[in-house]
Amino acid sequence: MVIQQRLYTLAEFEQLLQLPENQERLLELINGEVVEKATTEEHGIPITELIFFLRAFLEKTGLGGMVLSNVHYRAPHDDQNVRLPDVSYIGPRDRDPVSRGAAPEIPDLCVEVKSPSNSYKQLREKARFYLANGARLIWLIIPQRRQVEVYAPDFEDVLDETQTLSGRAVLPGFELPVCALFVNPLRSSEA
Predict the structure, then answer these.
(1) What is the b/e burial string over 116-146, where b = at least 16 CB atoms within 10 angstroms of the residue's CB?
(2) Exposure check for the chain: N or C terminus, fewer CB within 10 A?
(3) What is the mean pLDDT of residues 79-97?
(4) Dist CA 81 CA 175 (whole Å)
(5) How far apart are CA 88 and CA 135, in angstroms?
């Protein structure tokens, strides 16, 4: 949902984020427009599951880096975009975590989960933006179809729940059955 029709700069957007009424809102700056993300339980389940599996993988392998959720990122020299992937992975870097404002780089892995506020076109535009600005791997998770669209600079694929998601060169050795993203914790495991 677009918040206002006027275009914002990076500095104006960061000021907007500091307002008390916006502290708990999931806002992005997309081509100068402030857009709010809407979430649901269906949207949150794959995010939670994926973070769990990615953290376990990083701890097991010692690969390093950070797995984060809902962190603002911007491409250097881009005053019109601050993106908020649902999940992100940044490999080891020689810097401290950013403590104020958007991180000045696009993560190695960006994950977006389709929510009621996204169209498929918008999700794919986000994937193109991430790839054009340095991401090496994108996963678009579509709970309604139980699918994951995978994008890399030299690769595209659509995986269904019978297939396995791969970390490719970004997370070497990471594999996860797509069906693991779509558990239903509200149903008894005995059902």
Answers:
(1) eebeeeebbebbebbbebebbbbbbbbbeeb
(2) C
(3) 95
(4) 31
(5) 10
Q: Is the pLDDT of residue 191 over 60?
A: no
Q: Does residue 120 lie in a domain region?
A: yes
- Confirm whether 13 is domain-assigned: no
pLDDT (tens digit, 9 = 90+) per residue, 23-74? 899 999 999 999 999 899 999 999 999 999 999 999 999 999 999 999 999 9
Tokens of 150: 């995978």
Domain that residue 51 falls in:
39-182
Return d(Cα 188, Cα 191) in angstroms, integer: 5
Q: Give pLDDT, residue 147.
A: 97
**Segments in the chain forming alpha helices (H):** 10-18, 41-61, 120-132
Distance CA 139, CA 53 (A): 14
Q: For the chain, what's the residue count?
A: 191
Distance CA 102, CA 98 (A): 7
Query: Is residue 174 a contact partner of residue 166, using CB atoms and an 8 Å limit?
Result: yes
